[in-house]
Amino acid sequence: MSQEYPERPYEEQEQDQEEFLDVNEVAEEVADDETAPAPEDDDEDMDEDQDALEIDMSNNSWSYFDQHKDSIFTIFKHPKLPLVVTGGADDTAYMWTTHSQPPRFVGELAGHKESVIAGAFTAGGDFVITGDMAGFIQVHKATKGGEKWVKFGELEEVEEVLWITAHPTLPYFAFGANDGSVWVYQIDKSSGLVQIMSGFSHSLECNGGVFFEGKDENDLTLITISEDGTIVNWNCFTGAVNFKLLPHTDFRSVESPWVTIKIYKNVFAVGGRDGQLVIVNNDTGKPVHSLKTLDNVDDIAELSIEAIAWCTSPEINLLAVGLVSGDLLLFETQQWRLRKSIKIDDAITKLEFINNTPTLVGSSMNGKIYKWDARTGGELFAGVGHNMGVLDFAIVDNGKKLVTAGDEGVSLIFHHE
């Protein structure tokens, strides 16, 4: 990016009249939203819905964004600027700032045909990718230092996009589809969107994928997981399968529909819809540990592992696992013993550690977002204000702010030191 914005103290951000964006210079569709609309004050509605009133009164958020007209499914942040994208069931994605109060509306990534459920910024933040449930993917390019975003390219290869991931350092992105297919594209500033690979090794939905950062530009490796119980390591440049793990054969009689994947160094953790957790060494292509996280539940759907997070602090060897049951399990990764267990009153939707710290952030369908000290399991913060579930979140300002994606169509910004 041509311009970087240094972090400033919270108080300065609130008082500074020179905002990150000049609303007179942004794209034509950008709204001059100097003040966020005040919440409606309808005495009759409040009398009829006392539960909503109680939730509103307990709102401890710092600010909010409410342009969406339906559920917000995904939120992700720019790698350098105080900027996020939210995508929702209203078939669109919005860009807006997180450093100002209220947030500044930057623009709409219009043109999607169905619910926007996935997206990512490229490593340098020059491009943003968004995908919807109709299989339509758009790429927009930043101009004027991020003040304006223009259409760069589009794709429509599959019936439904399930996930999108961007390479951590190189200008590539991958996505998986409901037919099990896997696709990798390069964003070339002169040639546009260039297909690098399409793979068809999964027989059912490809539920997740993640790049492994290689030694150099000649190493482009992607790991994908599927509902059919397979895990595939791809050489993206050749389309060859480096290794493929099969149910029963490689997982000791286990046949799990894999739904979650997270990497750490040379290993990755995969979570199943049936509560199975597997740790795989990417160098050898062999599982090194496997365990069943939960047993004795009335509803098998509660076993599903919806969230995994590795603690990257070198002194703290922890893996956090969150289930539909509301169980948060913290495993010590040397001997794979359960260190702590925390119970939430509804499904856990996402987990993420703050940088190289033991502070764990988690969201739930109970409408709350939390911070915990993973070493002790102690709760540090609980953000409230949603009247439906929190489906996704982004950590900004090194963990000082948490920005949510609410099922009711509102994003909240929580400020907590």
Instruction: Please state how the strands of the largest beta sheet are arranged side by side.
Output: 1-32-31-30
Radius of gyration: 21 Å
State the CATH topology of the domain at 293-391 and 406-417. Answer: Methylamine Dehydrogenase, Chain H
Largest sheet descriptor: 4 strands, antiparallel
| Tally of strands | 32
Low-confidence stretches: 1-42, 52-56
Q: What does the overall shape look like? A: globular
Which percent band covers the strand fraction?
over 45%
Looking at CATH, the homologous superfamily of the domain at 293-391 and 406-417 is YVTN repeat-like/Quinoprotein amine dehydrogenase
Contiguous helical run count:
3
Task: Give a short summary of the structure.
The protein is mainly beta and 417 residues long. Helix content is 5%, strand content 48%.
In words, what does this structure look like?
The chain is mainly β. It has a domain of 111 residues: Methylamine Dehydrogenase, Chain H (7 Propeller), CATH 2.130.10. Helix content is 5%, strand content 48%. It is built from 3 helices and 32 strands. It has a 4-stranded antiparallel sheet, with no helix packed on it. The longest helix is centred in the first third of the chain and has 8 residues. The N terminus is likely disordered. Keywords: Repeat, WD repeat. It comes from Suhomyces tanzawaensis NRRL Y-17324. Pfam families: WD40. This is WD40 repeat-like protein.
